[in-house]
Amino acid sequence: MTDVLPAGSLEGKVALVTGSSRGIGADTVRYLAEAGADVVINFRNKAPRAEKLAGQLRELGRRVLVVGADLTDPASVGEMFDAVKAEFGRLDVLVLNASGGMESGMAEDYALALNRDAQLNVLDAAVPLLGDGARVVFVTSHQAHFIRTTPTMPEYEPVALSKRAGEDALRERIPGLAEKGIGFTVVSGDMIEGTITATLLERANPGAIAERRESAGKLYNVSEFAAEVARAAIDAVPADNTRLVGDVSAFAAE
After folding, report:
1. Nearest Cα to 125, choosing from 76, 187, 182, 66?
2. pLDDT band with cut points at 50, 70 and 90 for residue 153
3. Which single residue of 35, 172, 206, 243 could bond 5 by disulfide (Cβ 3.0 to 4.6 Å)?
């Protein structure tokens, strides 16, 4: 057990984290479960990993639902929330963690389809289950959040632009969510040591991670950043709906 969140702070709550079979998503869903939440683990194609994690969280005494879904497929997303409704009847925390766009062999518009369109679709499908006091957290990177004022490496630019487009589209939902008593927080972090994205960037641009680490003074690892994402699920929503994690001195605000 870790003490990332106060013990029992999510007792009786239900939390879904997209892309939670590994990496930041897996650590986030673990922290939420440790704080008392029943959880939904969502994966695209890592079923064994998702089931292994589910087994560990059930040992904490939590109810765990494992749901495979292609977030770019509205029918698949609909089935996921049907399963959540059947199992729990409601949702209190939705963490929009899954993203991508650097994978090889995907359609040209895949980054935008996943990082913007799918995020909106997942949120809209979740809203009927989210009640007063619920929280939505969108996970992004400084490279995407600040892309309009601070250039990023060319290999990452299409992903950064699509993530920012997703953030902008989600932010337009904030007033409507607020009317229902649903809080919305964007959590933006620097490059995270040990993530798939960092690995792919390093492959495309050797030395990029070390250079960024030197510039920032420190880069968070997966579990450290996941802890910030988990805290955003219970901390008060910042005035600008934005939680910046780590050094931002290299990025120009708009």
Report:
1. 76
2. confident
3. 35
DSSP state of 121: H
Residue type, 94: L
Please state, in angstroms and rounded to a whole number, the distance separating the CA atoms of residues 28 and 36.
13
**62 — pLDDT class (breaks 50, 70, 90):** very high
Q: Which two tokens stand for residue 199?
A: 């690995």
**pLDDT tens per residue across span 79-110:** 999 999 999 999 999 999 998 887 777 777 88
| Residue 115 token pair | 């990082």
What are the angstrom distances between the C-alpha of 177 and each of 126, 130, 131, 148? 11, 9, 10, 26
Cβ neighbour number for residue 59 with a 10 Å cutoff: 10
CB 160 within 8 A of CB 188: no
Examine the pLDDT at 212 and tell me if it is beyond 90: no
- pTM over 0.85? The answer is yes
Mean pLDDT for 183-200 is 84
Side by side, which strands form the sheet with 14-17? 64-68, 38-43, 14-17, 91-96, 130-141, 183-189, 242-245
**Please, which residues have CB within 8 angstroms of residue 162's CB and are 6 or more apart in sequence?**
101, 111, 112, 114, 115, 116, 144
Phi, psi (degrees; rounded to nearest 5) at 247? -65, 135
3-class DSSP state of 196: helix
